[in-house]
Amino acid sequence: MDKKALFDKWVAFTTSVHQVTHELTQNAKSDSITPVQYNILEYITVSQPVTPSEISDCQHISMPNTSRELKKLSEKNLIEKVSDSEDRRKQYIHLSKEGEMMMNEAFAIVESRFQSRLQHASKEDLADIERAMDILQTKLFY
Amino acid sequence: MDKKALFDKWVAFTTSVHQVTHELTQNAKSDSITPVQYNILEYITVSQPVTPSEISDCQHISMPNTSRELKKLSEKNLIEKVSDSEDRRKQYIHLSKEGEMMMNEAFAIVESRFQSRLQHASKEDLADIERAMDILQTKLFY
DNA sequence: CTATTTAATTATCATTTGATAACCATAATA
DNA sequence: TATTATGGTTATCAAATGATAATTAAATAG
Fold first, then answer.
1. Nucleotides of D under 7 A from a protein CB
2. I need a surface site. Which of A72, B67, B80, B83 has the fewest CB within 10 A?
3. Which domains, from first to last, does chain A contain?
């Protein structure tokens, strides 16, 4: 297979990934937050504690807009800010108890859909899937 | 590896896919169209000819909003509409010459970034990647 | 032939998101 | 100490997107 064909395959593959991700995650999030706010919470969940600058960088949201959304999340009592004692300009953000609960619920829904998608997979299938994800993670999506 | 761990790996994996996809595609699109319009054009590109209803379903955009965006794309001379001779309610949408050129440019940018990401990959690496994408495509992202 | 369904459009409104300028407080540097 | 750089905030505006109701035209079912 030449490189051009591999690119075409990559396009089809990422399209499928996006599609399935959408299927598994749709309506999993609470209605009280916007899609962008959910993305931010998701990022905080897996990376906490995290600074506003990091959120801004990784989620590709400008600092002013990041600040605005964090303020809204804070007003909804989903996150908490702690300022660094070393450098008092910095802030560390983590989920509040309420935020954790919300994200746990969302992830539970997604996981149950994920598991039911795999319910008919054999042990070998699961091993294949795991290996394939490892390979792509290290060789392509690093 | 238990199923819960596989789910966690899936979360990390899809995050990477989204991240890398963003890297490769950022600024590839012309400034004259919005992100949603680009997504629509991308979908038309790989699936043409396609009806507004199909776009609405697959891109998760309501019919009225789909119609609006298609109208804008049409006004920008990027797509053309042909009504079905059998069922005159239906429309088939395909890229115009101009639209094809625009998408070719965008895909060329993305592909060059993709190839440079793989420039140090060996023949075996490429084969591994291809196989891994096939496995995931058939067993997980179907 | 009438009623209903389907495919698409138009109009309108609210919300979300993106972009920019000005600003504050703290920290680092010259 | 004065200056500059960094991390973050506030305010404001414009544009993009999402949601809903009402409408048209064509096809299909009764």
1. 6-12, 15-22, 25-28
2. B83
3. 27-105 (1.10.10.10)
